[in-house]
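Deliverable D4.2, example record:
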Amino acid sequence: MFHHSVRSIVHPTLGYADSTAFACFQEQSLSVKQYEKFVINQCESTLNGTMEGGWCRDKQDSPLFFVEIGQDGSYCNSSLSRSVVYILEPVTTKSSPDSNTDTGWKDVSQAFGFDHHL
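Output generated by the structure prediction step:
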C-alpha cells in the first residue's frame, strides 16, 4: 500500500482531528482486509477497546476513534482503484475528562454517528 496524499485538519477548540488519506493497494480486496484487521488490532489490543460500526469504543462506552475505508471511483497507476481512508480522532487525552475539548470530542463523535449504548 502507498498513500497518494494525506489531509489532516485539527480542530483544537472542539478537541478532534480528521484525516483523509488516499491509498492504492497492490491487491485491492486482500490489502483492504489486512488494513481493516490492523485497525481492529489497534483498537482491541493496543487501546483495549472494541470495534463497532467503524467506531473504536473503550470499556466505558466512550469513543476512541472512527475509521472508514471506501472507494472514491478514481484510479491509481496500473488501473488500481483508489481507496479513501477517513479517520476521526480526539486530540486530547483522557487525563482531564471534564475539559471543554473532551466534551467537544464527545459532541462531535455523536454528530458523526457515535451511538452510546449506556
